[in-house]
């Protein structure tokens, strides 16, 4: 009976993490639509009302802005429910609780920043940070979903075998690549709000450097750790996404003024969100595997465990 309850709890938490991941992605998509259509102030400088009403008027702009607000509100509520559920039912998995807490914190913060941007005029750096926080919220949701799915239960984390050990060099390069990706994405969001030519040049240079680092991470994951199934898969995913990212950026420029005006930036945002999220998950996995004892250390660790 107890095992059946634990299994049910696990399934509920798993689907909550999946739902959170989807709603966070929708928030990003809606944000792109709002920015592209210039609908940010279509409800006036009011929040949460739209021109004094809970239900907006029939104008396209007000519907777009109100949909974004509604999606962000649902995302915040779902993130809080997910956090509480993990705190109650996943007490043995502190890592799950941390991911859920990060997700809830950043989705609430970015929602508050969005509301303040409506009521009070915000500077471009703050608006770019608003997008950056939404990116962290989605990455945390994806990391949570992938971690729960990979674990298969709510039991304590089990250390992998010694042959799955990852070098500190690979770990550090992966973490740096994830952090650098966030910096490039923030710069891109800042450029979109300021349209400064000098910053655009810096962005292109940073993107080229990012391409190099991510390809190195992918190469190391596939070639050096091909025997570790999830590391190999994550290496392939980040390489594919990294190659697709500049291509989607070119499509974004080509689509200006065409019928693909809205589709191209949504595709670019989709690739960006998943690239950063998968790099974050790969960083966590390499960090975990870099702590696995190797060789004699592993045998000593096993002896200590047996004696205990």
TrEMBL record:
Record membrane topology: Multi-pass membrane protein
Main location as per UniProt: membrane
Cited InterPro entries: COX15/CtaA_fam (IPR003780), COX15/CtaA_HemeA_synthase (IPR050450)
This protein's pathway: Porphyrin-containing compound metabolism
This protein's UniProt keywords: Cell membrane, Disulfide bond, Heme biosynthesis, Iron, Membrane, Metal-binding, Oxidoreductase, Transmembrane, Transmembrane helix
Pfam families membership: COX15-CtaA
Localization per Swiss-Prot or TrEMBL: Membrane
Keyword Disulfide bond part of the UniProt annotation: yes
Residues annotated as transmembrane: 12-32, 70-89, 96-120, 126-148, 173-191, 203-222, 234-254, 260-282
Keyword Disulfide bond: yes
Protein's name according to its UniProt entry: Heme A synthase
């Amino acid at each position: 009976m107890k095992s059946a309850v634990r299994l049910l709890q696990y399934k509920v938490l798993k689907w909550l993490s999946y739902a959170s991941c989807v709603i966070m992605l929708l928030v990003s998509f809606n944000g792109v639509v709002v920015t592209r259509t210039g609908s940010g102030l279509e409800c006036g400088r009011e929040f949460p009302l739209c021109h004094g009403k809970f239900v907006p008027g029939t104008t396209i702009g007000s519907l777009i802005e109100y949909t974004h607000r509604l999606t962000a509100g649902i995302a915040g509520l779902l993130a809080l429910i997910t956090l509480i559920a993990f705190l109650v039912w996943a007490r043995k998995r502190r890592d799950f609780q941390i991911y859920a807490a990060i997700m809830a914190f950043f989705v609430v913060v970015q929602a508050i920043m969005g509301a303040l941007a409506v009521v009070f005029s915000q500077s471009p750096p703050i608006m770019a940070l608003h997008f950056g926080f939404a990116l962290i919220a989605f990455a945390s949701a994806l990391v949570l979903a992938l971690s729960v799915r990979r674990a298969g239960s709510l039991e304590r984390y089990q250390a992998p075998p010694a042959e799955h050990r990852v070098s500190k060099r690979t770990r550090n390069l992966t973490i740096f690549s994830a952090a650098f990706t966030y910096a490039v994405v923030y710069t891109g969001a800042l450029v979109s709000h300021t349209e400064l030519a000098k910053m655009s040049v810096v962005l292109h240079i940073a993107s080229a450097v990012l391409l190099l680092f991510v390809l190195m991470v992918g190469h190391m994951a596939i070639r050096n750790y091909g025997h570790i199934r999830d590391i190999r898969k994550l290496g392939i995913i980040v390489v594919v996404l990294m190659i697709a990212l500049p291509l989607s950026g070119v499509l974004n420029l080509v689509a200006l003024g065409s019928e693909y005006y809205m589709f191209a930036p949504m595709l670019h945002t989709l690739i960006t969100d998943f690239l950063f999220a998968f790099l974050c998950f790969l960083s966590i996995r390499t960090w975990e595997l870099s702590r696995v004892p190797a060789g004699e250390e592993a045998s000593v660790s096993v002896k200590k465990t047996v004696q205990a």
